[in-house]
Structures are given as C-alpha cells and as structure tokens.
Amino acid sequence: MKRLLVLLALLLSHPALAFLPHGGGIVSGGGPPTPVIIQQASTTVNPGGAGFNGNNYVRQLPNAIQANDLLYVGVSYPHGTFSSITDTNGTTFGSPICTADAGVGNYTTAVWLVPAMPAGRDFVTVNLTSLTRPFQMTLVEFNNIATASPVNGTASCVANSAINAGTSVVNPGSLTPSNNDAAGGTLVYSYLAMASGTGAGNPTSYTAASGYTQVDQDTAWNSNTSFYHATQMFLQRTAAATTPSMTIAGNTSDHFNVITVPLKVASAGGSLPSTIYVRKLLDLTAAPIAPANFNWVLQAQFTGNLRIMDGSFLQGFGWSFQTPAVTDSDGNTWLSADSNKFIWYCFCAASTGNTFVTVHYSSAANTTPNTTVRMFDVLNATAFDVGAALAPTGSCSSVTSFGGAPNITPTHSNGLVIGHFAPSSYTTGVTSPAGAQYALVNYTGDADADFMNNGDGMAILYNSTTAAENWTWTLISFAGSTCFAAAAAFH
After folding, report:
1. Res. 10 pLDDT band, cuts 50 70 90
2. 219, 242, 264: which is the final residue of a domain?
3. Contact criterion met (CB below 8 Å) for 271 and 27
4. How many CA atoms lie within 13 Å of 76's alpha carbon, on the beta-carbon side?
5. Which of 63, 85, 235 is nearest to 145 (CA)?
6. What CA–CA distance (Å, rounded) separates 143 from 71?
7. pLDDT at site 290
8. What pLDDT is recorded for position 337?
9. Rounded distance, CA 261 to CA 189, Å?
C-alpha cells in the first residue's frame, strides 16, 4: 500500500497531467486535486508592419464557463494605450495581477484573474484609447484553483527580456511560489509575448522549460512581419524555485514580455465533459507568401481525438494545394470536410508532445494571400458526419445579412457543427441556426484581408437534433462583395 501511494504521488506530480483530457477532480483515496485547462482561446494579431489598426476587441471562449472555475485573461497591446476591460457577466476586473511594460514605443503585457466565475457564456471586451495595433488576447478557464486570493505568492512580471542569441532561450528568471503543498501545490502558468518590433526571425518551434508543458504558441508567421506569443504551465506539488524559460528556435534577437502567475491549487469548479467538446481554439495567421511549393508549418498540442483546422484556403491567386494537402508530424493525413476545402480534420490520437501540422501549398509564380486559420482541439468525438459548402456567389453584394451560407443537415444529434463564412467585406456575427456561437474576435476597424480573421466569420454549434440548419451571417455591406461558405458536422 505504501508503494502504491508513493507511485500515485509521483504520477500526480507529472506536469503533463495538468493538460491531459480528464476532469481533474479530487483523486479517489484522498489525493490532492489536479487543476486542468477546461478550455482556451487565443487570438492572432494585426502586427505592427501589416494589417489594420483596431479597438474594442471582443472574444469569448468556445463554451460556457463552469461555475467556480477561474478565468485567466492575458493581453498584449502598445504601451500607453490600455483603457478598460469588461465582460458580459459584469465582472469588476480592477487592476491586472501583473503588468510587464517594455516602455514608450514598445508593447505592454498584462494579466487579469477572475476566480469563482459564474456559470454561463462570457464575452470579454478590451478597450484601448485609440485604433492601434498589435493586440493579442489569450483566455483560459481553469478548474481546481482557489476561489479567493488565487495567486499563490507573487506573480513574476518581466519586461523586455532579450532572447539569448546563441541558444534562442528567453529566460525571465525564477520565482518561488508560497507553500501550498498540503492543499495540492501550485499551477505555474507563464505567458510570453513580443515586447517590441515586428519580429527579427520566424520561429519554427517553441520548447517549454524543463518540467513544463507547452500549451500554445504561434509558428504561423513567415515574413518577419509578425507578433509572437506562447504559453506554458507546470503543476508544482512541492514549493520550490522555478524558472519558466522558453526556447524559440529560429529567433535570435527579439525581446519579450513574460508574465508568470503561480495559481493556488484547491478543490473547486467543474470538470471536462464526457460529450463532444471544443477544448482549445487557436487563431493563426501567415503573411502573403511567394515561393513555389511552400510548406506552412503550425505547431500545436492536441489532447483530444479530433483535430480540426478551419480557414479561407481560397484556391486562386495562382496557387493551389499539393498532394497531400495537409499532414502532421504524428504521421496522419488530414481530410477535407467540404468542397471549398475550408475545413480540414483528422481523427487522431492525442499528441504525445508537440505536433507540427503542415499545409502544403503549390504556387507557380503568384503570391498567396495572407491566410488565417483556426486550430481546434476536440475531445470525445466519434466520427465525421457530413459537410456542406456554398460556392462563390455575388448575391451577398450590398447586404448586411446573408443566409444559406451554407445549408447543412446533420445526421446525428448531440454533435458539433462548425460554420465558416468568407465575404469580400467582413463578418460581424451569426444569427442562425439557433444556438450557434460566434467564435472569432470582433473589433472596431476590422476589414477584409485583416490579419486577425481575414474578415471571415466562424461559429460553432452543439446540435441537439438532426434538424436542417440554415447558416445566416451578418456582415458589413459592400458593393460587389462575393461570398464563400462551408460547414462540417461531427459527432
């Protein structure tokens, strides 16, 4: 029995357990609670050298928040431009837990924590003092974090940390959480974002510090017109000094803001569901690219058995897909869900570490447009159901609402449907089918071909029936606009 308890303690201390697809509740037999990420969403940006200035950024998580979970909000923006942060729950955010400010002409990174969240949908809005860029937002829901005073000690706020030119390591120094060992320890969560400029190198991979688990990152940028960000985490059962360094291959000279928050473990909140569930939704963008047979490599970590990539892969501009079009480093070949080839998917085992998804472009001479995609990590899926598409049409010219984009009828109830809309103007929301949740960032200043969402719309629906669905979107009126659309159902 003693050996069994020792083995259990060793297993619970493993950092990867903080992101495995389980509920993270109290361990039977009296073990400590294990906090997990219930869900996460992160935006890409309009970088300093491209895209559009914006303000009043609105984003939500893909699912309703569970009662008494903790909401983490991390944002990055130009120095001196922050005005306010609000949400639809009426939360009083107050001052951030931590701010890393690289100074005039550079960027600021800040983190807010909201413990003991009420159950339900929540839209977070960040208002700046003017239209500006870049802006990046990361939202995370954690369970099993203290419902009051959730910071276990003092957060680390390090601004303008230079990457080591020889090792490509960003080292913000160490922090030591307070002793919460008896209650389960500390979940150390670290958010890294660019402190200045538009990128001196294109990262090819991010590697978490020893003992940490890489959670998300952005390897999509490819033209030194970019904004890099990443997160990592470490479940520390015994209080000790820890250093959340990160290796960024392909970068040797940029500076970064790093905020590391020690979260106090406690038994609280919800758990991961056993039904189909979007756990992570990450936005990624590539700038226009010219070389023939370009391979766009995207790093990701998947904890579920369904991987989905959604984007406006408009096959034109003198380019198309190679064969195969999408592969990954785990040896999987991805399939297209619709005839427009907007939505790609793979029923695959969870990643054992980092996965690299490659989109294989073919371009003879012309430059591809900037491309924004969404990467989904989906739990508890069974199979692909049905796909649908709307071929290019000019009937959305000069309108503010457009339906039948597309029409789809799932063949299984209690599934997941993803809808995608690509007009020549830009999308502002979704109005049908009932229950569909808009899942991209909205902001003042958005336009077609922006770098945050390409003016596209994307929404998700957990369909309770097999009723026919007429996907209807709201958009900014634009004379001469053409539209594409796609949808895919899974169960």
Report:
1. very low
2. 264
3. no
4. 31
5. 235
6. 9
7. 56
8. 97
9. 5
Quote the pLDDT of residue 371: 81
Give the residue among 42, 134, 87 at the shortest CA–CA distance from 445: 134
- pLDDT value for 9: 43
For residue 124, give the nearest of 52, 66, 43, 53 by alpha carbon: 43
Predicted TM-score (pTM) above 0.90: yes
Nearest CA among 35, 17, 41 for reference residue 279: 41
Residue with tokens 């907007």: 342
Considering the domain architecture, whether residues 384 and 447 belong to the same structural domain is answered as yes
Of all residues in the chain, what percent are helix, strand and coil, respectively (each to 5)? 5, 45, 50
Tell me if 109 sits within 8 A of 193, measured CB to CB.
yes
Q: Quick one: 189 and 42 in the same domain?
A: yes
Burial class of residue 421, CB neighbours in 10 A (0-12, 13-18, 19+): buried
- CA-based max dimension of the chain: 74
Q: What is the mean pLDDT of residues 301-327?
A: 85
Place of tokens 């000790």: 240
* Residue carrying structure tokens 């991987």: 307
Q: Give bridge partners of residue 232 from the DSSP assignment.
A: 190, 214
Our CA angle for 6, 10, 16, nearest 5°, is 160
Q: Is residue 270 part of a domain?
A: no
Burial of 323 (0-12, 13-18, 19+ CB in 10 A): exposed
Nearest to 141 by CA among 257, 41, 32, 46: 41
CA 456 – CA 421 distance, rounded (Å): 6
Through-space distance between the first and last CA atoms of the chain, rounded to whole angstroms: 42
Contact 484, 343 (CB under 8 A): no
Q: Which residues does 72 contact at the CB level (< 8 Å), separation at least 6? A: 111, 112, 113, 138, 139, 140, 141, 142, 189, 261
Closest residue by Cα to residue 252 from 128, 159, 167: 167
**Counted domains in the chain:** 2
Strands annotated E in 150-236 = 156-162, 169-170, 186-194, 205-208, 213-217, 229-236
Q: Which of 267, 271, 454 is nearest to 370 (CA)?
A: 454
Range of the domain at 453: 277-490
